[in-house]
Amino acid sequence: MPKMKTHSGTKKRIKVTGSGKLRHDGSGKRHNLEKKTSKMTRRMGKGGEIAAPDAPRIKRLLGI
């Protein structure tokens, strides 16, 4: 039986906390930062927790 591989895109975007919860970074903070206000970029930087209904699917992608 072959080993299950982790999804490369998912492992770059989602981190697992010590308690096993999944966290993601905010979006929109990669480019065009000069035209965005400081207030907007600070707000974009905040990530969040993955919603409970989505967690099992993402854990399967990560191989957890």
From TrEMBL:
Residue ranges, compositional bias (Basic residues): 1-15, 29-45
Positions of region (Disordered): 1-51
Coiled coil region boundaries: none
Any GO molecular function: structural constituent of ribosome
Signal peptide: none
Cellular component, GO annotation: cytosolic large ribosomal subunit
Family assignment from sequence similarity: Belongs to the bacterial ribosomal protein bL35 family.
Alphabetical UniProt keywords: Ribonucleoprotein, Ribosomal protein
Protein's recorded name: Large ribosomal subunit protein bL35
Keyword Ribonucleoprotein carried by entry: yes
Species assigned in the record: Nakamurella flava
Gene Ontology biological process terms from the UniProt entry: translation
Chain ranges passing through the membrane: none
